[in-house]
Amino acid sequence: MPRTLLLAVAGMVGTGKTTLTRALAQRFGLQTALESVDDDNPWLARFYGPEKDAKATYALRLQLHFLATRFRAMRQLRAQGGGWILDRTWYEDAEIFARGLHEQELLTPHEYELYERLYAELLTGPAARPPRLLIYLDGPLDLVVARIGQRGREAERDMPPAYWKRLDIRDYDLVRDPEAIDEIAAAVRRTLEPELPQTELWPAGFR
Q: Are strands 82-86 and 133-137 parallel, antiparallel or unpaired?
């Protein structure tokens, strides 16, 4: 299998994961593996839909779809090799979203036990080897909700703040201040040099 350098950005919806992922990819010559939420996902709109008990009805199917899609992408990525940066990890799928749905009683104990068994099996495969570096982004709830309202998918924008609080850029705000990438990139470089495939590929058009 080709050698793969894998970095990952984790965090709440609306904290700037995609912005940071693209900025670091441009800076260091990495390929991006952006989260695909809407493509070929028959469950997302139904989960957020208006019908009674929609979340409880579709929670397991939605989480299994995310899990299967995530690990398929990781197998393809590792087979290709090279340097990559992700804007979401399989850890969040299981430990944040699926666990949160279980705690909200949207996944029954039997459904969650089935999900955990499958997740545990997938973790034994080579696709689930941990990233070389994991960057976690956090942010105050009011900022997260505001960003979801500005750019979020229609289904996400209709969710009450309490929903996002349950899932829950203090130091960096790349949306308002793109130059904040400098300090983050310096920390990444200190950790990973000389593993990075290229360093300081600064894109003139990023600012």
A: unpaired
